[in-house]
From TrEMBL:
Protein name, entry field: MBL fold metallo-hydrolase
CDD domains to which the protein is assigned, alphabetical: DHPS-like_MBL-fold
Domain Metallo-beta-lactamase: 24-105
GO molecular function, one term: transferase activity
Superkingdom assignment: Bacteria
Amino acid sequence: MGLKITTLVENSLGENLALLAAHGLSFLIEEDDKSFLFDLGQHDLVVKNAAELGFDLSLISKVIISHNHYDHGGGLKDLINNFGPQEIIVHKDFFEEKYGIGKIKMEYLGINYTLKSLLKTGSKIQEISDNITYISDNIFIAANFKRKSSFEKVNKRFYIKRDNELVLDEFNDEIAVGIKSPKGLIILLGCSHPGVVNMLNSIIERTGIDDIYCILGGTHLVEGETERISKTIQYIKDLDVDYIGISHCTGKKAEKAFKQELPNKFFHNSTGTTIEIM
């Protein structure tokens, strides 16, 4: 198995200063002769950074979007405008309108397109509802995470519009990507709004795999209390994960705690970071 995971977009820049960074997240997954995008940032940086790295995005087999927030799905329009119709995988609840309590008022946080507008581009949309959906022999999408963790509460800052009313968003649309590798399971997270522990627990329970090599992505611990951060770190310690490359919505406080508690396993995953397994 040849596997390469490149972070095309993250809030921060790594060593390659020719790349561009912005608040958001996007992963390029190359597995043998197949390539996938997991999230697309908020605008055209996926297209620009892929070009800078010499990757032809016309080779992408499928696009997977973790949830309906602008900083994860906003770049899809630019991808389609540059490379034509795409095969897109989202959760069946993906197209519900997303809002959040801002500094002054309720703000729209969702994507800049609709199901109807996507279909007009000729793109194909697969709306998944199963707990586990395989897109190749070794890559699957995990969904419908069970909320069991007592310390991972529903964030009361986020809402969805349903029947013309704003109701608390439990992020039923959030999905993650799992990759079976010779070194163990690799898990890619968008924002982990349902809770990192809830998501990992669900994946382990449903796949029967608890040998996790690496966790990459966002954890949304930026608003997490000290107790939640501490218990999340302890959970990951107990799993004996080899590496944890988190960033984006994790927050400085949580990243500092991860670095202190897991100094040989934690790294800040930035734009341009690459993991390769042969």
